[in-house]
From TrEMBL:
GO terms for biological process: response to tellurium ion. The keyword Transmembrane helix does not apply. Gene3D superfamilies: sav2460 like domains. This is TerD domain-containing protein. Signal peptide: none annotated. Keywords: Tellurium resistance. InterPro entries: Stress/Tellurium_Resist, TerD. Residues 36-69 are annotated as: Disordered. Residues 75-258 form the TerD domain.
């Protein structure tokens, strides 16, 4: 069974990326005879654009992470660095990923960033149910939930949050690849060169302590998708690897990279 992403309510034909058909309107995901959920509302905040060009758009209403979490002692990761989450966190079943960024003014078109997570097995394959994104926001095993924060009230501090319970990840899952894509990047002529101050942060939900942070897009320019980090099994522990690898080709390129079989 292959994965077809057809987002409906458009008169144009879905575009083909290899074997993956992608159309970008209101989202409905069809996998054979299975429909994974109804379209979710767009929860992105509306922002007023300041005058001028290449000016970061301020997010006035959002609280700062320092207001709610303890950022003292947070470790800054560099690209390629690997750290044990078991050694940093009090409980790997109660972790939160916080992602934040600033969007440069691009005239009349907003830049929409989407977070997805690929749950990858030892053969570097991702089953369709283990592709976690805006229209399939929670894994069946309970390991991943987009937009949740273990009920500690910090999700308002970030552009996106992901709730993690690594103890619930099935034994055959070896890697959780955290990715970000720009919606309709090719049509709008957008790329990660128009995104600045993009950070991934890991928060311990028990202590509200920020454990580490990583500036993941400072080296990108023409790319439209990025593997921000991979959280992976190593012997009896979970580690995090600061990847920062950019792709041209958006979501389709990421699906190819993580072995989603498409038709």
């Amino acid at each position: 069974m292959g994965l077809v992403i057809d987002t409906g309510k458009r008169t144009s034909q879905p575009r083909k990326y290899g074997n993956l058909a992608v159309d970008t309107g209101d989202v409905t995901i069809h996998t054979g005879n299975i429909v994974l959920g109804d379209p979710l509302p767009d929860t992105r905040q509306n922002r007023e654009e300041p005058e001028g060009t290449n000016v970061p758009i301020p997010d006035i209403k959002r609280k700062k992470p320092d207001d709610i979490t303890d950022t003292a002692g947070s470790l800054e990761m560099k690209m390629g660095q690997k750290i044990s989450l078991n050694q940093k966190a009090s409980d790997i079943s109660r972790l939160i990923i916080g992602l934040e960024w600033e969007l440069n003014n691009t005239g009349n078109q907003d830049i929409a960033l989407d977070v997805s997570i690929f749950m990858v097995d030892s053969a570097n394959k991702t089953e369709e149910d283990n592709f976690i994104f805006y229209n399939n926001p929670a894994s069946r095993c309970g390991a991943i939930s987009l937009g949740s924060d273990h009920h500690i009230g910090i999700k308002e501090c970030y552009d996106e949050v992901v709730q993690l319970d690594l103890n619930r990840a099935p034994s055959h899952i070896q890697t959780l690849a955290v990715t970000v894509t720009i919606d309709e990047a090719d049509e709008r002529g957008q790329n990660f060169g128009q995104v600045s101050n993009a950070y991934l942060k890991i928060i311990d939900a028990n202590t509200r302590k920020e454990l580490l942070f990583y500036n993941f897009a400072e080296h990108l320019s023409a790319e439209t998708a990025i593997v921000v980090t991979e959280i992976y099994r190593y012997k009896d522990e979970w580690k995090i690897n600061a990847i920062g690898r950019g792709f041209k080709g958006g979501l389709a390129a990421l699906c190819d990279n993580y072995g989603i079989e498409t038709e």
